[in-house]
Fold:
Amino acid sequence: MSPSNPDVRVVEGALDASGLKVGIVAARFNEAVVERLVDGAIGALVRHGADPADLTLAWVPGAYELGVVLSSMAAAGTVGPGGERNGGYDALVALGCVVRGSTPHFDYVAGEAASAVSAIAREHGLPVAFGVLTTDTWEQAVERAGGKLGNKGAEAAVTAVETAQVLRRL
Structure:
């Protein structure tokens, strides 16, 4: 998007994953849905130029545990004087599925997963895309994992790539 003032520097990210090292952390709970999110994320990354050898997939028991592994992956490597990342990951993707039940457990798990993702992104200056489905029903989750509402895993992966490219251009 271009501003009306041509003197403004505009920074946008390309949807080019070539050369990016991307970590994906996926929650095993509700695995039938999460596997579809993972497939969508990996497929999107490869379609946008990622080398499968530059992708790392880590499985954790549930959405609550995403944060600790994301934090460890985010801490890998260093950031150079120009903002470039040396070693470690250029972007991370959090994938999971939390379906509302009849207890408040949903609120705690979904809220903690979201809080962890945003805190890790801020702390490390690293794109951490939130691809954790938080739905009221199983059917809604299926619709968002490759059904009629698309694949939110693929969307999260593309978001991570675009944000990583914006950070590189800043």
About this structure: The mean pLDDT is 90.
